Amino acid sequence: MKISSEWREHALRQTSSVEAPWTVIEGTDPAYRSLSLGNILLQNLKTRLETKETPTPNVALPPVLSAIDDLLILRTLDLSLTLEKSTYKQELEKYQGKLNF
Q1: How far is Cα 22 from Cα 87, in angstroms, rounded to an integer?
Q2: What is the mean pLDDT of each run of 10 residues along the chain (101 residues)?
Q3: Would you call 53 helix, strand, or coil by DSSP?
Q4: Half-sphere exposure (CA, 13 Å, Cβ side) for 84?
Q5: How many whole angstroms separate alpha carbon 9 and alpha carbon 3?
Q6: Residue 91 contacts by C-beta under 8 Å, 6 or more apart in sequence?
């Protein structure tokens, strides 16, 4: 399936940011592509290493919610329970299959 240039441009515009800009590299010639990527990585690493200050990430964390029923689930678990290895493998396969649907 070939993606139209309109969609590629739209994706680039929507996902490129100041913190993580896209760099478009001509990919026809593998040697040129690899050399260009190597030069870009080298330049960005040098620039980052020359920067003395550590950038602080701009991350908005969700508020920590207290338990509404004052029940701390991990404290109520019976950690002495065991499971046979063969049963564990069967259960693991079953639940991984459910996750994978």
Answers
A1: 48
A2: 75 84 89 95 91 76 71 78 92 88 63
A3: coil
A4: 3
A5: 10
A6: 83
Q: Residue 34 gets which letter from DSSP?
A: H
Residue 1 one-letter amino acid: M
- The label of the residue with tokens 């996750």 reads 99
49, 46, 59: which is closest to 19 by C-alpha?
A: 59
Distance in angstroms (rounded) separating the CA atoms of residues 37 and 30: 11
Is the pTM higher than 0.70? The answer reads: no
Distance CA 40, CA 100 (A): 37
CA–CA separation, 43 vs 49, rounded Å?
10
> Which residue has tokens 């693991």?
92
